[in-house]
């Protein structure tokens, strides 16, 4: 292995340890708080989030709304990851600008941020997959993208389950159903909604919505990019 690959391997090993950790007391408390928050958030807001996630999930699985970029072949890892970092930064800037604009525009416009941000996240993952040499025109590669998404935006207990499956992806992929309707999108959307609710609800508050929108979208896209890098390193290395 090259020195770059050795350093990447060490970073991957540390990250993998974090993914395997059992939920801490703080994790469990945060989950309890989130359950309580869900009870006081208006049903209309929940409905918008749920519908957006459901629509996005189905679109990804059938590939009807996203143009699959061509995979990059025969490129060394440092070159691939330099381009990946550039794409992540670009999406973070776009997402932060979008979050600031919708956050400043008030409650109704602020609701539109949810589907817009979801689209940005999925397009980022498609671009990263292609830069690592994977063809998302393949149904199972699109499923891998959804697994990355879950790994980034789920509770620690759910992350443990997802990571265990991704560690042995080649074997796990053989067990995946051919029927896309069998994908567990309900758990997927519930975990994602619970993960982002608090930050995104604050974005709808008049006066602070723009600042929160910039910060939240930047942070969420940054986390997604970081997890995607590690997920593809796990397959390459």
UniProtKB/TrEMBL annotation:
It comes from the Bacteria. InterPro entries: EcsC (IPR024787). PANTHER family: PROTEIN ECSC. This is EcsC family protein. It comes from Fibrella aquatilis.
């Amino acid at each position: 292995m090259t020195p770059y690959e050795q350093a990447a391997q060490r970073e991957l090993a540390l990250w993998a340890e974090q993914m395997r950790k059992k939920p801490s007391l703080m994790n469990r408390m945060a989950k309890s708080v989130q359950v309580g928050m869900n009870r006081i958030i208006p049903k209309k807001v929940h409905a918008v989030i749920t519908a957006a996630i459901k629509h996005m999930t189905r679109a990804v699985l059938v590939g009807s709304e996203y143009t699959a970029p061509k995979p990059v072949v025969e490129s060394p890892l440092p070159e691939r990851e330099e381009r990946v970092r550039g794409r992540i930064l670009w999406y973070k800037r776009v997402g932060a600008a979008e979050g600031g604009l919708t956050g400043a525009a008030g409650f109704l416009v602020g609701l539109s941020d949810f589907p817009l941000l979801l689209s940005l996240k999925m397009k980022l993952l498609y671009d990263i997959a292609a830069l690592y040499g994977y063809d998302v025109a393949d149904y199972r590669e699109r499923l891998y993208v959804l697994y990355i998404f879950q790994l980034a935006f789920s509770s620690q207990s759910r992350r443990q389950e997802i990571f265990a499956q991704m560690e042995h992806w080649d074997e796990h992929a053989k067990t995946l159903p051919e029927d896309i309707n069998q994908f567990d999108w309900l758990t997927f959307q519930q975990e994602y909604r619970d993960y982002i609710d608090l930050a995104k609800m604050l974005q709808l508050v008049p006066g602070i919505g723009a600042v929160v929108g910039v910060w939240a979208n930047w942070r969420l896209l940054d986390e997604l990019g970081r997890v995607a890098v590690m997920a593809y390193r796990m397959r390459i290395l």
